[in-house]
């Protein structure tokens, strides 16, 4: 059944003949509109699902609704979700192209203007698919991901069940391709970068040292370079102004943490420059209002990220906390820079000797020396100790991790080419540790025995 009569276009489109609409053409146009809308929803859901933050996912999980349940199921299999979206979107777009080509041939006669027909059938239709089926829905979904996730959770779950066999095939093929290319790809380790620096930078040893420090910074955590809590100079929130001045004069520090009751409850940081204008005030002066807000970082935060945050926040000190919120120590901008350029000292620093060498292979270490500094003495990477270090930050902590209990004097422990002998210990702390480094020949013999 036809509606109307053929029309001949006027002007620029004079050579196009417009056929009257039939029932099949009207149904086709309606179905084409449905496919375009569904393509837009599927494309939008791709952006919505893969742009969710952890907070938004947690909110969806807590919603306890039907749509949130389906959404969580979809999110639990991200590879299958992506395969489902890609398969559905491609099938819909193919359907749109085929159906639009058929409908334009049914409604329009481009035999007298093939170039114009090509433009409309290919360029114009492709533009409409991209605009209404890809760009606009993705822009909307990026700004409002959660409503889109809820709205599309059920339809996508149904589609996933339908195309699941094809999805598994797609995931399998993707893994095979990735495995094939990953075999050819050579990963560059930090040691490779260090070797490359040794080869390329030869003129200035200091430049080479700095470049190596920058490369190794990505593997150094805050706990590796922090000042442990037992060595931190801090102020009690209830201290009098005179006591504050005494600590400032005695320590020579420019920034001092302030705690209440326990160092696990740090209230803030006192900048010494802030009290200079109040130095003549009496003992009752309320110095607490000068405290600045503390900056807390987790103990496993990478030093390169911490350096960037120091630069962004214009901060020089951070309080290092563990997973339970307890204070482990403090880390400063100077601590990070020392990993790059070496030890930085000024006229107010009092040199603290944490080790001394007894002979070619024997050293005496303070138990509180950081493992990162311990490894520097022997030009070793701190990762060398990862097998036994556990949560230890200091050499004394390493001994406790290896021993599993408080050692006694003269107890001996061995790890790889290090031999640790407990030289001084009390009921609470390991104070001094004698370390013997086995010679290279001894190490080789030991490795041969293990191999046999």
Description:
This protein has 452 residues and is of the alpha+beta class. It folds into four domains: 2-184, no CATH class; 186-219, no CATH class; 222-341, CBS-domain (Roll), CATH 3.10.580; 355-451, Uridine Diphospho-n-acetylenolpyruvylglucosamine Reductase, domain 3 (2-Layer Sandwich), CATH 3.30.465. Helix content is 53%, strand content 16%. It contains 17 helices and 17 strands. It has helices at residues 23-49, 54-63, 66-75, 78-107, 114-143, 145-184, 190-200, 205-216, 222-225, 241-251, 272-275, 303-313, 333-341, 371-377, 386-389, 395-403, 440-451; strands spanning 2-3, 7-8, 17-18, 21-22, 108-109, 227-228, 235-236, 255-260, 262-271, 296-298, 317-321, 327-332, 355-357, 362-366, 412-415, 418-425, 430-437. It has a five-stranded antiparallel sheet with strand order 13-14-17-16-15, with helices on one face. α1 runs parallel beside α5 and α7 runs antiparallel to α8. The longest helix has 40 residues, at 145-184. GO terms for molecular function: flavin adenine dinucleotide binding. It is a multi-pass membrane protein.
């Amino acid at each position: 059944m036809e509606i109307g009569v053929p029309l001949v276009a006027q002007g620029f489109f004079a050579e196009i003949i417009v056929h009257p609409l039939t029932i099949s053409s009207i149904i086709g146009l309606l179905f084409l509109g449905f496919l375009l809308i569904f393509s837009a929803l599927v494309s939008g859901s791709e952006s919505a699902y893969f742009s969710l933050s952890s907070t938004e996912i947690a909110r969806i999980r807590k919603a306890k609704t039907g749509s949130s349940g389906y959404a969580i199921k979809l999110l639990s299999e991200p590879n299958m979700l992506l395969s489902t979206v890609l398969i559905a979107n491609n099938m819909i777009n193919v359907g749109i192209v085929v159906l639009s080509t058929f409908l334009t041939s049914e409604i329009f006669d481009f035999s007298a203007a093939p170039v114009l027909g090509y433009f409309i059938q290919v360029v114009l239709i492709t533009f409409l698919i991209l605009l209404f089926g890809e760009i606009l829905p993705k822009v909307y979904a990026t700004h409002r991901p959660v409503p889109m996730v809820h709205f599309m959770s059920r339809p996508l779950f149904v589609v996933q069940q339908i195309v699941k066999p094809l999805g598994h095939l797609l995931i399998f093929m993707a893994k095979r391709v990735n495995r094939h290319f990953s075999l050819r790809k050579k990963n560059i380790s930090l040691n490779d970068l260090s070797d490359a620096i040794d080869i390329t930078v030869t003129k200035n040893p200091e430049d080479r040292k700095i470049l190596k420090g920058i490369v190794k910074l990505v593997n150094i955590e805050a706990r590796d370079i922090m000042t442990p809590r037992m060595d931190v100079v801090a102020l009690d929130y209830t201290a009098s102004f005179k006591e504050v001045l005494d600590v400032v004069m005695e320590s020579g520090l420019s920034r001092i943490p302030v705690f209440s009751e326990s160092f696990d409850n740090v209230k803030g940081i006192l900048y010494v420059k802030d009290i200079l204008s109040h130095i003549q005030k009496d003992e009752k002066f309320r110095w607490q209002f000068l405290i600045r807000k503390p900056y807390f970082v987790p103990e496993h935060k990478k030093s390169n990220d911490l350096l960037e945050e120091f630069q962004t926040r214009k901060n020089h000190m951070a309080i290092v906390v563990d997973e339970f919120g307890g204070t482990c120590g403090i880390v400063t901008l100077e601590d990070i820079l020392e990993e790059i350029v070496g030890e930085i000292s000024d006229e107010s620093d009092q040199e603290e000797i944490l080790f001394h060498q007894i002979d070619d292979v024997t050293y005496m270490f303070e138990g509180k020396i950081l493992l990162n500094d311990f490894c520097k003495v022997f030009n070793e990477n701190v990762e060398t100790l990862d097998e036994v270090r556990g949560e230890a930050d200091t050499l004394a902590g390493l001994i406790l991790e290896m021993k599993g209990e408080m050692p006694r004097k003269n107890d001996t422990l061995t790890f790889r080419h290090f031999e640790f002998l407990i030289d001084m210990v009390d009921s609470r702390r390991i104070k001094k540790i004698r370390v013997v480094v086995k010679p290279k020949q001894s190490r080789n013999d030991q490795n041969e025995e293990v191999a046999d």
